Amino acid sequence: MSRLSAIVVVLLLLPWASTVTAEADSRHDDTRPGPVLVIGDSLSADYGFERGRGWVSLLAERMREHGHDRAVVNAAISGDTTRSGRARLPRALEEQQPSVVIIQLGGNDGLRGLDLGEAQANLAAMIEVSQAAGAQVLLAGVRLPPNYGRPYIEAFAAMYAELAETHQVALVPRILAGVGEREDLMQPDGIHPTADAQPVILDNLWPALIPLLTHSARE
């Protein structure tokens, strides 16, 4: 089996995880900001290692260390695409009433070679519904492997940049920067980072997230 075929098979067979929260009770009162909602795929769902060691759980700990008194709700599901994420986001927004939404989706669309026009439209809809609900948005992207060809890879990367500029949202173009290039931080499938990589992923996201946390704390 070729490496490309193995990648696709792994993604298609990923288990669908249930929604979990990084804190036992994600409900919030009127005296503190709403939670941070993470809607993503296996890169945010603790895939391949012990639950609770992923970057979302580490985010909850770091926020507490920096005095941000709010929950982190992990609504990531392994194997998720932008289409399914778009379908389930409205309910999550209604239930959680987040102040910040981190959208970490699109990688499975790209790895499956799905139409990028549809993926971009789905992500745009997710950004718009999050903003309409009063949440600030951080868009987190990934880079595709080189065997997908330069035109598709470049169009995929441009999708995130265009969305961030059009909708004026924070962007982390590559959440796996400093991770994907290191075999010691990647699982044997070559797609998913290890538990040891999770602090690096959080460090990639944190600078873009701090202003959103600070701003929403004032509202």
UniProtKB/TrEMBL annotation:
Keywords assigned by UniProt, alphabetized: Signal
Stored Gene3D superfamilies: SGNH hydrolase
MF terms in GO: phosphatidylcholine lysophospholipase activity
One Pfam family this sequence matches: Lipase_GDSL_2
Signal peptide: 1-22
Record domain SGNH hydrolase-type esterase: where: 38-196
CDD domains, alphabetized: Lysophospholipase_L1_like
PANTHER family tied to this protein: THIOESTERASE 1/PROTEASE 1/LYSOPHOSPHOLIPASE L1, THIOESTERASE 1_PROTEASE 1_LYSOPHOSPHOLIPASE L1
Protein name: Arylesterase
Protein species of origin: Natronospira elongata
